[in-house]
Amino acid sequence: MSISLYNYLCQNIVGSEDHVRLTRLMNASKDQYGSSKFSTQITSGSFGEGLELQGSDSDMMFVFRDIEVTDQKKLHAVHSAIYFFSVTDDVKPGYAYLRLIKGNTLRNVLLCRGFEGQLYLSSTAMKQCFMNEVLTVVHGPCVSDKEGIFDFAHCLHSKAWIFTASKWVSRSKNTWPTSEVKQRVIDHGVLFVPIGSGGNLNEELKWRISFSVGEKFLIYSFTHTQLLCYSLMKVLLTDVIRKSPGCKDLLCSYFIKTILFWLSEELPTSMWKKDDLIPCFMKCVKRLVFCVEYSICPHYFIPENNLFENKIIGQGRTKLLETLYILMNYGWQCIFISPQISTVSVSCREQFNDDFFFNDIKKILNSKLLSTVRYKEPMDYVKNLQVVFSYRTKKLRSISLSNMSQNCISIAHTIHLSSLLSNKSKSKQYKQCLYYILQSTNHDAVTGWLMLASLFYEKKQYNKTLYVLTYSLRKCTREKLYYGANVSEVHRELFCSRTLRKLGIIRMLRLISISFVVFHPESSLIPGEIKLDVLNVPYVLPPVVYLHFLTFLCHYHLHNVRNLQKSLGDLCITIKTNYFISDFSTKAAAYDCLGVAFQIIGDLESAREIFVRSINLYPDLLLNCSFKRLAMMNSL
What we know:
With 636 residues, the chain is α+β, with helices and mostly antiparallel strands. The protein is built from 27 helices and 13 strands. The protein has three domains: 1-13 and 222-354, Poly(a)-polymerase, middle domain, CATH 1.10.1410; 35-212, 2-Layer Sandwich (Beta Polymerase, domain 2); 365-635, no CATH class. The strands form three sheets. Strands 2-3-4-11-10-9 form a six-stranded mixed β-barrel. A two-stranded antiparallel sheet has the order 5-6. A hairpin with a 2-residue loop joins β5 (112-115) and β6. The mean pLDDT is 86.
């Protein structure tokens, strides 16, 4: 039964070993391109570890490059512009004050608070610095959106291993972690994230010592069985324990990770194999019960820090224990309480002759891996190509080329094509934008070409625009894939092609996938007809909807009445049949486009009706442009 459960989790919940490895490579590459000269981007949380479980959010850390933390009182070699000294005396283990010792500028002083004649960096002020109209909520050390989809933490780095975690270096002599992994963790150092220990004096001056990157290295060294145990425990926590009365906010996934670390250190690596998945899982459950019974969960790196202190106590602890004892009575079958895991499917051994390649593609299509990441840094294309081709594996080269292409399209959006520039400057900007857009056509089958059409439309070259759109439409065939698409049996047959399999998943997706069209607020490529000056969030459109809308605009400007009516009809049919439309938010954006089209031809009643339909589908005042368009119509 362990092997059946193992196969089920690989197929339906976690993915194969190859899928997890690919997820990690893609995240690492995106982090590389997402980093700037000011900060290093780190994808963290479960997703950063290679897992994308149901209900998980996007955790991102940004580490300042020009700020460094040290616990050495003498600075021997100064590299950073700003230095803080970590003070751990009279602070709960795992936390520190950060005293400013170098870089006493006005900006830094504004983020600091005076205490006992010294300046200390305020964790509260740091978070407030990065709050805006979208990121309106403080969630622990992060700033988040109100839906809790994004968590962004801005961190400081200590390159040296911190003294309070020095015992970990020599503690374990077992087979896990290996000396190589341990050395890698130590060499990275530690991070400091903006949150205190809770409810104490000078709370806003305290920072938590974070081992997030080191923990990723440890998770990466897990066998796939260990990773599946970790995932099972997270599913049990999310779907079962937190749903029990009185248990919602008592346990977090970090406690689960800590328990896995301790067990991995104690048990021989040979125990973590696929045919022992169920016994290993039950060891994890029993350890969780033990920790709750005694209200103790020592931090893996700093055991003096009891993660359960002042948290798992009183009535909450009693309720939690009642739930855990019930789960223990079910044994390993307690996992079937989760709606994600099917009793019948796990018990049916025959279904696991399935194709992991096909299943991994299905997971990627519903993954944040395909989401658009916004880059703003210009790049030296030749230099980046040299770096890409220095990589040893085809897979890593393919991932990096894909991200370079996506980077190009993002840079193209930021190039200003203003009519106020001189003719020479306009020509230069146009050529530069054209250069980046042509490079971006390698990202997927269509999106780069749609951006090229947008550039021609911006320059009022309507016939050129129509030519590119006609070419793009021929590429938008039914076998193409997109984010959130249902993969059919037709696709299964397509993926059986040896030619496609030789390409690998990344190169194959560049040929047969289509991304959504994303315009950022400052983009010069967004058609003026749908641009709102008050819009502060990305404007996301289904690709075929945008194609027909842009076709409609060209015929409108060319006074081609018959073709205008046809393109408007094509737009309506595309929305009605959900062609390349994956969810209600993108369908609402499609209706928004259709409403603008009716506005342009003067059919205001139909426009109002369509905007209302969009609002009913996606009633988000900030993200749905139809609210603003309807308000502007009603004010006339």
